[in-house]
Amino acid sequence: MTSSESTATDSPRKGLTAALESSQPRRRSFTDYRRFIQNHYDGLPGALTAVTGLLTGHEALAGRLIRPGAFDVRGCKRILDAACGNGRYSRFLLRHADADAILTTFDLSPRMLTRARARLKSERVSHAVADLTRLPYADASFDAIVCGWVLEHLPDPRLGLRELARVLQPGGKLLLLSTEDTLTGAMCSRLWHCRTYNRVELRQISAECGLRWEREMWFSGMHRLLKLGGIIVEMRRASLPDSHSA
């Protein structure tokens, strides 16, 4: 299966949430869709992520996920912020990581990387334009990874999860955030032209890719109660994924 033409293999969506979801991922080939998404984030929608993050509370809530007692990166020396966007999670990684830790970031959108550089202004960070399905890093390069709100831009999550598992060292930790197949998730899908994932199915697929769910996390107790905020989970790399698995 190639990243350019692969299609989703999970269960078909039904009902109101399916009707509300963006049709862009289904209407376009992956090559065309990837170009569309890059242009989307290079443009005004990407520039507005700083504003929308404030309005939705995601800017402040990000700090509740990346900190001691939550996704703790103390002791991690090589950290990757996958599809870093405007640097929302990078700034908390820098705040809580050891002083000698190195942060690597990438994004498909060159303009988002420019915004992240302007925001972070740190010599401890390196930036690169890269594709989650073809990461330019060696096996087991990182002991911690944050991957926020990018997996839903792939037709099949395995394309990204296998690469994340490959570059994560055995026992390394991954914080994954992804849009869920709920009503609010479908509304976000329409806004950002992405798909959604079912929580149970994504857990099973993660295991196929060598990633073991450790714990599900939430922005707040209210998010947990109302099942809001999407899928947020801390995982560990168990072993090398089988490239021939389904």
What does this protein structure show overall?
By secondary structure, this protein is an alpha/beta fold. A 7-stranded mixed sheet has the order 3-2-1-4-5-7-6, with helices on both faces. The model is unreliable at 1-9 (pLDDT under 50). It has helices at residues 15-20, 24-27, 30-42, 44-47, 49-56, 58-65, 90-96, 110-120, 158-167, 183-192, 199-208, 221-226; strands spanning 78-82, 102-107, 125-129, 142-148, 168-178, 211-216, 231-237.
Mean pLDDT: 89
Summarize the biggest pleated sheet. 7 strands, mixed
Structural class: alpha/beta
Sequence of secondary-structure elements = HHHHHHEHEHEEHEHHEHE
Q: Give the oligomeric state of the chains in this entry, treating copies of one chain as homo and distinct chains as hetero.
A: single chain
Helicity range: 25-40%
Shape label: globular
Question: Would you kindly provide a brief summary of this structure?
Answer:
This protein is 39% helix and 19% strand. With 246 residues, it is an alpha/beta fold.
Fill in the keyword field for this structure.
246 residues; alpha/beta; 7-stranded mixed β-sheet
